[in-house]
Amino acid sequence: QELGFRMEPHRERRAEAEDYAARELREARRRFIWGWILAVPSAVIMILHEFGINVPSDRTQHLLLEQFLSFLVIFVAGGDTILRAVRQGVRGHTSMDTLIALGTGASFASGLLKLAGWPVTSFAMVGGMIMAFHLTGRYIEETAKGRASQAIRKLIELGAKSAHVLRDGVEVELPLEQVVVGDVLVVRPGEKIPTDGEVVAGESAVDESMATG
Questions:
Q1: Which of 1, 31, 96, 184 has the fewest CB atoms lying closer than 10 Å?
Q2: Using N-to-C axis directions, what is the helix angle for 124-157 and 79-90, rounded to 10°?
């Protein structure tokens, strides 16, 4: 909780977890797309400026356009990154978001100083490009996490759904949720081991591929 996360008692919330992961991926894709839609014009204007061509031709208007486009990329498309960095900073923690926020914020500030008449070089558009690349990385990360989560869910689904339990000397088949600590389970050759435990009698070979790959 000190790191900014919320803890809740464990519940069966697979559907909610899948919806949350899907929302995170959609949000990352949306920010990635808008980041580049706004960053590409910034890059074009920046390249033209390097060749001595200001768009617009008026110097002040050119700086204002730089700041405007950079603001949209850094604080709108990348607003979630900036917000996370601020929350972590308040709690005295840092992360990659902190690094990106500092870099893009300093770049944006240089443009403001330039507009104010200070003899500095404006790197506002560079900050926008940094944020666009960061949003690209976040989108790739969320995509990879989604694929990994799907693979893990499929692996978990291979596990046993029920167990043969000895209750008062009688073997009964129960759903896995009803198995409690202290139960003695019967696992026949070829069956899946339902849960963690200690071998108290017998011997056999175990297929560990579900856990080891």
A1: 1
A2: 80
CA-nearest of 68, 180, 167, 41 to 124 is: 68
Residue 183 contacts residue 165 (beta carbons within 8 Å)? yes
pTM summary value: 0.69
**pLDDT higher than threshold 70 for residue 49:** yes
Between β-strands 162-167 and 170-175, what pairing exists: parallel, antiparallel or unpaired?
A: antiparallel
> Is the Cα dihedral 132, 136, 141, 147 positive or negative?
positive
- CA geometry: angle at 16 spanning 27 and 6, to 5°? 80
Neighbouring residues of 23: CB distance < 8 A, sequence distance ≥ 6 = none
Quote the pLDDT of residue 59: 80
Nearest to 124 by CA among 73, 82, 86: 73
Query: Which residue, among 66, 43, 52, 59, has the nearest Cα to 132 in the 3D structure?
Result: 43
Q: What is the dihedral of CA 198, 203, 209, 211, to 10 degrees?
A: 0
Place of tokens 């893009």: 104
pLDDT of residue 147: 85
Higher pLDDT, 59 or 68: 68
Both structure tokens of 168: 């008062």
User: 7-16, 46-55, 177-186: which range is least confident on average?
Assistant: 7-16
CA dist 24 and 164 (Å) reads 40
